[in-house]
């Protein structure tokens, strides 16, 4: 029995030292070379501070809507709903989001709705939406704000982030940055 306990205790101590000390120091060291030293991108506008890498709720009709969140945009505990795409409760929730989107955006067809605007991401904190999700909201925002649709399309184009190295991922738009730019339009 002693021949198993002491090696297990030693392995536990080695893992504890490595994962609590060495690994954390390595990750922290790499973070110091990233923008804002690993604290995320901070935007300050009109005396308010925002973190652009964390999804935030925008559900007023004068703004582009955010991607839904399974954790109510609470960054202290990210996570998905863990419900299957065949779960009746999940299907009701998605259908309610689709219905709400159609009520607030009359004139769009249900088939035009991209999935990212009615489903939460795996973390529940995705700050981005697809270009298609932004474009289906243009008519509503144009009508409410009195801004020409082509000006909103240009705003979407100027806030579109291309895939990493042109290969990895899809085009996306940070909703916070888009809505802050929208507020700055004259």
Give an overview in words.
The chain folds into 2 domains: 39 residues; 134 residues, no CATH class. The chain has a 3-stranded antiparallel beta sheet with strand order 3-5-4. A two-stranded antiparallel ribbon has the order 1-2. It contains 6 helices and 5 strands; from the N terminus they run αββαβαααββα. The model has no long low-confidence stretch (mean pLDDT 88). It is mostly helical.
Helix-strand blueprint:
Blueprint: H1 2-31, E1 42-45, E2 48-51, H2 88-104, E3 128-129, H3 131-135, H4 138-145, H5 149-158, E4 160-161, E5 172-174, H6 175-184
Antiparallel strand pairs: 1-2, 3-5, 4-5
- Helix/strand structural class: mainly alpha
Number of strands: 5
Q: Major β-sheet, in short?
A: 3 strands, antiparallel
Average pLDDT number: 88
From the N-terminal CA to the C-terminal CA, the straight-line distance is 77 Å
- N-to-C SSE string, H for helix and E for strand: HEEHEHHHEEH
Query: Can you count the helices?
Result: 6
Extract low-pLDDT stretches. none
Strand order of the largest sheet: 3-5-4
Domain module count? 2
* Beta-strand residue fraction: 5-15%
Shape: extended
* Helical amount: 40-55%
Radius of gyration, in Å, reads: 22 Å
Organism: Arachidicoccus soli
Keywords: ATP-binding, Cell membrane, Ion transport, Membrane, Nucleotide-binding, Potassium, Potassium transport, Transmembrane, Transmembrane helix, Transport
Transmembrane segments: 12-31
GO cellular component, one term: plasma membrane
């Amino acid at each position: 029995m002693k021949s198993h306990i002491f090696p297990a205790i030693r392995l536990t101590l080695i893992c504890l030292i490595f994962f609590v000390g060495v690994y954390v120091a390595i990750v922290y060291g790499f973070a110091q070379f990233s923008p804002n030293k690993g604290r995320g991108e901070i935007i300050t506008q009109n005396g308010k501070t925002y973190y652009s890498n964390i999804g935030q709720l925008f559900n007023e009709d004068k703004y582009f809507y955010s991607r839904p969140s399974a954790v109510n945009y609470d960054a202290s505990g990210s996570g998905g709903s863990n419900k299957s795409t065949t779960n009746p409760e999940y299907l009701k929730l998605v259908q309610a989001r689709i219905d709400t989107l159609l009520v607030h955006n009359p004139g769009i067809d249900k088939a035009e709705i991209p999935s990212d605007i009615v489903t939460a991401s795996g973390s529940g904190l995705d700050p981005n939406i697809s270009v298609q999700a932004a474009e289906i909201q243009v008519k509503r925002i144009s009508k409410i704000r009195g801004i020409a649709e082509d000006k909103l399309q240009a705003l979407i184009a100027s806030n579109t982030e291309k895939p990493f190295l042109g290969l990895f991922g899809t085009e996306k738009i940070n909703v916070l940055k888009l809505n802050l730019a929208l507020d700055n339009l004259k």
